[in-house]
Amino acid sequence: MSTSATVSLDIQKIREEFPVLNQTVNGRDLVYFDNAATSQKPRNVIQALTDYYQSYNANIHRGIHTLAERATKAYEDSREAVRGFINAPGVEEIIFVRGVTEGINLVASSYGRTFIGAGDEVVISGLEHHSNIVPWQMLCEEKKAVLRVIPVSDEGELMMEAFEGLLSDRTRLVAVNHASNSLGTINPVKEIVRLAHRRGAVVLVDGAQAGAHLDIDVTDLDCDFYCLSAHKMYGPTGAGILYGRKALLESMPPYQGGGEMIKEVTFEKTTYNELPYKFEAGTPNIADVIAFRSAMEFILACGRENIRAHEQSLLQYATRKLGSLPSVRLIGTATEKVSVLAFVVEGIHHFDIGQMLDSRGIAVRTGHHCTQPLMDRYGIEGTVRASFAVYNTKEEIDQLVEGLGRIINFVK
Amino acid sequence: MNPDQQMAISKIQDDIVRDFSLLDADAEMKVLYVMELGQALAEMPEADKTDDNIVKGCQSKVWLTARLEREKVYFTADSNTAITKGLVSLLIRIFNGQTPDAILAAELYFMTAIGMERFIGTQRSNGFSSMIRQMKLYALAFKTKMEIGS
Q1: Per residue in A34-65, is it b (16+ CB within 10 Å) or e — as a string?
Q2: Which of A155, B14, B15, B37 has its CA 20 to 30 A from that of A201?
Q3: Is A3-41+303-411 in CATH node 3.40.50.1980?
Q4: ipTM reported for the complex, 2 dp
């Protein structure tokens, strides 16, 4: 880890870009550690939303007037920005969706129902969010296909040997996350893709927890589908993307019918529009897609390496500090992690800890984090999860540790 | 309805409001105080912590049982979270030893007066309403039983 990289980010200056951070909660400065749920938004993102509505709100594509032109250009510029951000070969491979959940559902519904049949197998992992479990369960139930699950080690890492054993000639699709929302584990996605491709299966990667933290290169990963949610990467809610390999997207039927996605409609037959519009039925979420570009610009301006270095130093600091508190047990101790720290405290329910921390102005998430099977794996009901973003500081972690220390002492 | 009983219920609520007012506006103090109240709650026998006794609508697990003694209701409760246990202890303080009629007629105002929703959040407040509903259901069941009995 290069320390010179962390020095190059002026965190106080970055914090000034996030108006929401400048407030008190329950009489104390807000400490926002719920970034894995959604990150806060910088001024340039908020400004992009305002600019759109104040200056060029119009429906995109097909419009001949000036505002429609401007809106269309901004919307398509956003698509190109995403392409660059994840290094996809073609801009037509970027489909705007509401977020990762919709992206996965699109693939499960369109690709899955076309190419997965009775007796075929879908492989997911024990680290998945419900969003990357339920669509596949629904598909498998409908098609009489079989769902297989990659087991998770005590540290919270995928057991790769077991994964190899799960792959068969019937494996049609593998769906895994790039990083776990509950534990932070960064999965060896490139290796998963290589092994799956060897058996002829396609791979979908849920990038919800990677977008704000990792360098994403879908060409290098060689994955077939990749999903992102803007709101977890400093962008607005309700916007995200599905990247799909062009040949696959072309072979897939549309997901929803309506405006935008058609070329020609008669009552006898409709011919579908080209990629990516085939999958973007109806008026899209124009404003949020446009502002998504500003969010990516914010990330790139900070530098993904710099963000990673800063967040990793926060993670290491927090892991050391929290790990030394009595009766705290860290859940998820993988070697490679994004800045997520999950833990339980012996004898104190996670709801109580969450409430106590909130009374000190500290926002964490408590519960099963939409990963109930993973909680079952650890024999726990839920955890407390602190997740860090580029604007968080070590002083804030000290406040978390102080708050925890107080509640632990109180209960003892 | 016996006005004395209603007075008694109001008196306990006023006491609770006064106790909380001594904690200033400090949210952390209030949460710690609620947890302390829970620690003081009479223990519930493990055998009573069954699925049947779980109050529906609470995010935390809350077990609640009630018995009628000389026409008065006595509740026992527990929770897997300390704050919820403290909250249910407040209700027990108010309702224990009251008649079914008094419990059914009781209007609870102390939550608003202490600003409970602000320091425990909406979800827990909804769960709290479920506890009150369950206690009133017990009171109704006892009242019906007494009426049939007489």
Answers
A1: bbbbbbbbbebbbebbebbeeebeeebbeeee
A2: A155
A3: no
A4: 0.85
Q: Is B110 on the interface with A (CB under 8 A)?
A: no
Condensed to tens digits (0 to 9), the pLDDT of residues A235-283 reads 999 999 999 999 999 999 999 888 878 888 888 888 888 999 999 999 9
Q: What is the CATH number of domain A46-300?
A: 3.40.640.10
How far separated are the first and last CA of chain B, in Å rounded? Answer: 18
pLDDT digits (tens, 9 = 90+) for A142-161: 999 999 999 999 999 999 99
For the full predicted model, state whether its pTM sits above 0.80.
yes
Question: What number of residues does chain A have?
Answer: 412
Q: What's the token pair of residue A100?
A: 């990762």
Catalytic residues of A: 370
Residue B135 CB burial class (10 angstroms; 0-12, 13-18, ≥19): buried
Looking at the predicted structure, is the pLDDT value of residue A6 above 50?
no
Minimal CA separation from B136 to chain A, in Å? 26
CB A338 within 8 A of CB A311: yes
| Helix H or strand E segment including A230 | none
What is the chain B residue with the closest CA to A25? B27
Which chain B residues contact residue A352 at CB under 8 A? Answer: 35, 81-83
Domain spanning B3-149, CATH class: alpha beta
